[in-house]
Amino acid sequence: MPAYLKSQANQGCRQVRTDQLRVALFSGNYNYQRDGVNNALNRLVGYLERQGVAVRVYSPTSDTPAFEPTGTLIPVPSVRIPGRGDYRFAYTFDAETRRDLEAFAPNLIHLSVPDRLAFFVKKWAIQRSIPVVASVHTRFDTYLSYYGLPWVDAILGDVMRRLYADLPIVFAPSESMADQLRADGMHDNIGIWSRGVDKVVFNPARRSLDWRRAHGIGDDERVIAFVGRLVMEKGLDVFADAVDRLTANGVAHRVLIVGDGLAREWAEARMPAAIFTGQLAGAELATAYASAELLFNPSTTETFGNVTLEAMACGRPVVGARATGTSSLVHHGISGLLVSPGDIDGYAAALTTYLTDDRAAAMAGEAGLALSRRYEWDEINQTMLDNYLTASAAPVVVPPSVFTPIVERVVTRFRAAA
């Protein structure tokens, strides 16, 4: 338990029982896209409900969701994000959403995205002495640079600090991301809400020669896997440059791309010899991990890196960026190799190690498998529930202003950057 929560718990605050807890969770994308964040949120909701907690989820929705939501999902007004039509932005706290929230009568609010709706909900909650916590799941600063908008980073940083600064706690998925949030001045009290992996689904026994053969992979070929959404912020350009360097160096390999997204056409044109499976899930995804020789994850935008953990659980070594998320999971030189972001020669050398040295690959895979066993979903989500219970019992301190308009500040920043 974070130190500040312990201190509050010792101040004689009224304790809330699990069956009294009513959590309103606000998400930017609960189930209309499949990614690690949504998987984690849905697992948390499922766990909370099994413990007797009442949960209601508020999120933008789609007519073609990626999967069925866990729990009760309430749609909120949203618009497509310019340049990223696969994601939506909640922009208002409309009367229908407000009525539903008031009828649900939560005693804890969890904000998992810094959109405009989050500011309205925060104000609504604090005015009613309802505790608010938040979690951070996205490296917006690195995302923006991929779309030619680095100047927006300063604006967004101001927005996030305004949202988080007076909350009692903010949760990050990894220690490396927590360190980044502190360095960015987002908050001093950063708790860890980690991620788990299903060992029944993801394990080395999923390796399948039949699966490889069905995808045109020879029994003796060495396969480099990329797993994730096919969007540029996942480092697809760096991935392609690094495997090109392997080809130039005469290092034999095959490339396996698992996932889908806006950059798939780009990736297919850039890596015409690669095998593209589309998006996979469950046992078939685990089979893809286990049937490769290693995972290559050059993304610098991870806050945790679910694909990295899943590959480790399948006994695969990982070559990744020395960046948030990945650096908290991969023990350099033990379960994989970390390379400075953008170092193509460094990536090629690391990949060559595992493509040409079976013993090194096997040892790293075994080490990663052992490390992955520390990440148990129920234990992780119980820790989050414990934090919820303590936060819901703590007194709410109303700051001088819970909703200082930021439009003027945004305009000022915009003009300065123009």
User: In CATH terms, what is the architecture of the largest domain?
Assistant: 3-Layer(aba) Sandwich
Specify the helix fraction band.
40-55%
As for the number of domains, it is 2
Query: What is the total tally of β strands?
Result: 15
What is the average of the pLDDT values? 89
Proportion of strand residues: 15-25%
Distance between the termini: 45 Å
Task: Summarize the helices and strands and which ones pair or pack.
Layout: H1 3-9, E1 22-26, H2 36-50, E2 54-59, E3 72-75, E4 78-81, E5 84-90, H3 95-104, E6 108-111, H4 116-127, E7 132-135, H5 140-146, H6 152-164, E8 170-172, H7 175-183, E9 190-192, H8 209-214, E10 223-227, H9 236-248, E11 254-258, H10 264-270, E12 275-278, H11 282-290, E13 294-297, H12 306-313, E14 318-321, H13 326-329, E15 336-339, H14 344-356, H15 358-372, H16 377-393, H17 407-417
Parallel strand pairs: 1-2, 1-6, 2-3, 6-7, 7-8, 8-9, 10-11, 10-13, 11-12, 13-14, 14-15
Antiparallel strand pairs: 4-5
Helix pairs in contact: 1-16, 2-16, 5-6, 9-14, 12-15, 14-15
Give a quick rundown of the structure:
The chain is of the alpha/beta class. Helix content is 42%, strand content 16%. Helix 2 (36-50) crosses helix 16, helix 12 (306-313) packs across helix 15 and helix 14 (344-356) packs across helix 15.
Describe the structure.
It is a single chain. The N terminus is likely disordered. Helix 12 crosses helix 15. 42% of the residues lie in helices and 16% in strands. Strand 11, helix 10 and strand 12 form a beta-alpha-beta unit. The chain has a 7-stranded parallel sheet, with helices on both faces. It has 418 residues and is α/β, with parallel strands linked by helices. It folds into 2 domains: 235 residues, Rossmann fold (3-Layer(aba) Sandwich); 169 residues, 3-Layer(aba) Sandwich (Rossmann fold), CATH 3.40.50.2000. The protein has 17 helices and 15 strands.
